[in-house]
Design brief:
The chain has about 120 residues and is α+β, with helices and mostly antiparallel strands. The chain is about 25% helix and about 40% strand. The chain contains two helices and four strands. A hairpin with a 5-residue loop joins strand 2 and strand 3. The radius of gyration is 17 Å and the shape is flat.
Length: about 120
């Protein structure tokens, strides 16, 4: 393990991995040098690599700082509520995207205010 990996592991206070079809999401709670918590959300998707035994993972990261927790969760809740209302209004039984959890399953209710305690 190199110095960068050691530093990165030391700063992670909480980590949650969620597999969703071909993608994996990582929610990591980390601390700044001033002991303020922030969240990194990483999307990882396996792509064909140079060979079968060496796959390539395409990763995208989002850094969410504590001053933005409330606005972020409000926006996320609004977007989810919109989708739920649209889905409730549909009369056909179109299947959900394969690999996604059914409503109410596969996620936890995270209270961002609890992260700083």
């Amino acid at each position: 393990m190199n110095e960068f990996e050691t530093q990165q592991n030391r700063d992670t206070h909480f980590s949650k991995r969620i597999r969703a079809g071909k993608r994996t999401y990582y929610f990591d709670v980390k601390a700044t040098r001033g002991n303020d918590y922030y969240i990194t959300i990483t999307e990882s998707k396996r792509k064909p690599g140079e060979s079968e035994d060496r796959p390539f993972f395409e990763k995208h990261k989002l850094f969410l700082y504590k001053e933005d927790f409330e606005k972020f969760t409000e926006g996320l809740h609004e977007a989810l509520d919109f989708i739920r209302e649209k889905r409730a209004g549909e009369h056909d039984s179109a299947p959900a995207h394969p690999g996604y959890a059914e409503a109410g399953q596969g996620y936890s209710n995270i209270e961002f205010d609890d992260l700083g305690r």
